[in-house]
Design goal:
Length: about 120
């Protein structure tokens, strides 16, 4: 099986993001103050990939602070809705968009993260 080109992988991630994530986190990745945290410049997004994979797969509830601002909402678990390939694509997209410069994640990375 041929490897997916970086451009094709980025397009796949952008598509998943625009369909499932942009309504809350916005097309710019800036989120909505007090409601949905930004993904742009977010150290959780660009840090250890395991943490952001866990959040996307299993959701997140409760108070968090991002870039000095508090949020106390609920991110739905996407693991039962999106495939591991879609999760890898969207996380890779987010980790490399809006000034973020973190490494991509693989389907194997996503599969390895358990609840």
């Amino acid at each position: 099986m041929a490897a997916t080109s970086p451009a094709a992988a980025n397009a796949a991630g952008a598509s998943v993001y625009n369909t499932n994530c942009a309504s809350c986190h916005q097309a710019t990745g800036e989120g909505v103050a007090g409601a949905f945290p930004p993904l742009a410049g977010n150290p959780t997004v660009t840090g250890n990939a395991t943490k952001v994979i866990h959040i996307v797969k299993y959701g997140l509830k409760g108070a968090i602070t991002v870039k000095g601002k508090s949020y106390n909402g609920m991110m739905p678990p996407w693991g039962s809705t999106l495939s591991n390939a879609d999760i890898a694509a969207v996380i890779s997209y987010v980790r490399s968009s809006w000034g973020n410069a973190a490494s991509p994640v693989t389907v194997a990375d996503v599969k390895a993260v358990a609840k």
